[in-house]
Prior knowledge:
The chain has four helices and 14 strands. The protein has 170 residues and is of the alpha/beta class. It has a five-stranded parallel beta sheet with strand order 1-4-7-10-13. Strands 3-6-9-12-14 form a five-stranded parallel beta sheet. A four-stranded parallel beta sheet has the order 2-5-8-11, with no helix packed on it. Helix 3 runs antiparallel to helix 4. The N and C termini lie far apart (46 Å).
Amino acid sequence: MLIISRIKEDLDNALAHDPAARNRLEVVLAYPGVHAVWGYRISHFLWNRKLKLLARMYANSVRTATGVEIHPAATIGRRFFIDHGMGVVIGSTSIIGNDVMIYHDVTLGARTYMQGKRHPTIENNVVIGAGARIIGDITIGHGARISSNVVITKDIPAQSTLESSEFFVI
């Protein structure tokens, strides 16, 4: 069954990315970042079936339970891991690739109220440190490493490492 294999994949991914995680049962019971991703997958499913109010209501209940806000319209790939989770916000037009890891208090936000693509695209194999703010319709390239507490408003090339002293401000 596909859904069971994806759940196992998410659990194994959490175990691979968090040395404090001891076993799958612990992750199932005590990892709000994993719960938030699973909640997003359900709300995204509802969103795509034109059950948008129900999707938003469910996403809101997940936010209340986990402290992670992911808009149901966002697009998120496989093996996405949110470590610690609290304060994460992912906007509606965000696109996140496979094998992405983010830490707590990260925002993938917009710079405008206009219609269309307003949020970042995060390519595969990216790590985003705690407190990072990635704002606008920009791209964080494949394999990039983003340090904690940076504000990014411009594209970041693939395989880059952005240190906290290198700010890209509006």
